[in-house]
Amino acid sequence: MRKLDEEATASTADIRAVIPPQKTQDSGLNLPTMLLGALCVLLAIIAIVLAAVSMNRQNVYNIGAAQGTSGGGNDGPAAGKTWLIMIGHDYGAHEYIDVEGNLAGYHHDLIREVCAAAGLNCRTVWDSYPNCWDSQAGQHGKGGQGLMNGWYDACTGWSRTRLRDGTFSFSKAFLPTHPPAFYVRRGNPGNFNVNDVSGKKIVFMDGWVDDEKCLARQSSITGSVLPADKILHVTETDAFQEKISTGEVDAGWAAGTFISQGYVDESVIQILSPTSPQTCMLDGSAMMTRKDNNFTVYWNQGFDKLVESGRFTRLCSEASQRHGRVGTVSCLNV
User: Is 203 helix (H, G, I), strand (E, B) or coil?
Assistant: First the structure.
C-alpha cells in the first residue's frame, strides 16, 4: 500500500524521467525553406513591377520620328491620334465663310490633302486668330492661349519670325514670303508720305507678322518707331479697312498682298509701298505648333509626298478656280 502511495505521489521529475520528452516545435522554417520562400516573394514583386511598367507604356506618346509607310499610310503612333488644327475665317481665299455659311478656303484643301498623304486623322477647329498668337499695341507679341494651352495641335498659315521662333515650332512653308506695305484711302487725300511717318497714327492687324515692331525695323522710313498713342490694333480685316476709310488713322500697315488676296476692297483703299521695304518673315506661311508637339514631323512627311507627286502644284493651281471669287492664292514654287 505504501508502495502504491509512493508511486502515486511520484514527483514530476520522476514522470519526466519515465516519459520521453516531446520534440520541441521549431519557431521558424529551416534555412533552405526560408531562402526558397524569399526567392518566390522577390520574383512575384518583380512580375508586378514589370506588369505595371508595361501598362504605363501603353499610354506614353512617342514623340520620336514618325514611322512612314508606303501608300500614304502611317502605322506609327500618329495613326491612332486625332489631330486638331485651328483655322479661322478672315484670311482671304485661304480661309473664309462661303455663301452657305460653311468654312472654306485653300487651307482646308491643303489640310485634307496633306493629312491624307501622311495617314493622319485630322480635324479642323475654328477659333479666333489671337488665340494662336496675340499682341497688344506697343507690346511684344506672345503665344495665344489656345495653342499654348493645347486646345489644338497646330495653327494654320502662320509665318516664322524671330519672335515666334522663340516660342513655337514651324512646319515647312507652303506659301511664299511677302513684303509689307502701307494702305490709305483711295486717292490718298491726306498726302501720306511712305518715307516719313512721324506723328502719324497707324492701324495694324493684331498678331500678324507686319506689326509695329516690323515697321520699326524699316530703317529707310523716318519716324518708323511709333509712340504707343499712335498705334491701333484690330482683329479683323473689315475693321482694318474701316479705320482707314473713316480717317480714324492716317494709314494701315500690313502685308503687301492685302488687296490681291481679297482682304480689303480696292475701291475703298489703296496700297502704297515703301521705297525699300524689308520683309519681317523668316519663312512663308506654315503650320505653327508648340515645341513639345510633334505634329510638324508627320505633316512634313505628308507635304513632301504631295510635292514629289506634283499634287501640291496642281492643288495651288486649282485654288483660283475653287476660291477665286474671294481672292488669290500665291503659290509657292517648290
Answer: strand
Please name the amino acid found at residue 78.
A
Q: Whole domain around residue 78: which residue ranges? A: 72-176+282-323
* CA angle centred on 161, ends 263 and 231, rounded to 5°: 60
In CATH, what number is assigned to the domain containing residue 200? 3.40.190.10
Q: Are residues 169 and 293 in the same domain?
A: yes
Segment 153-204, tens digit of pLDDT: 999 999 999 999 999 999 999 999 999 999 999 999 999 999 999 999 999 9
Amino acid at 43: L
Bridge partner list, 170:
288
User: Does residue 314 share a domain with residue 241?
Assistant: no
What is the per-residue pLDDT for 73?
A: 52
Measured from the Cβ of residue 230, the count of other Cβ atoms closer than 10 Å reads: 19
User: Same domain for 216 and 298?
Assistant: no
Local structure of 8: helix, strand or coil: helix
Determine the length of the chain: 334
Q: Is 332 part of a structural domain of the chain?
A: no
Same domain, 76 and 171: yes
Q: pLDDT tens digit string along 136-155?
A: 887 788 999 999 999 999 99
What are the tens digits of pLDDT across the range 111-130? 999 999 999 999 999 999 99
Nearest in space to 145 (alpha carbons), one of 159, 134, 161: 134
**Cβ–Cβ contacts within 10 Å for residue 218, how many?**
21
Whose grid coordinates read 519716324?
A: 223
79 closest CA partner among 68, 64, 92: 68
What pLDDT, on the 0 to 100 scale, is given for residue 8?
37
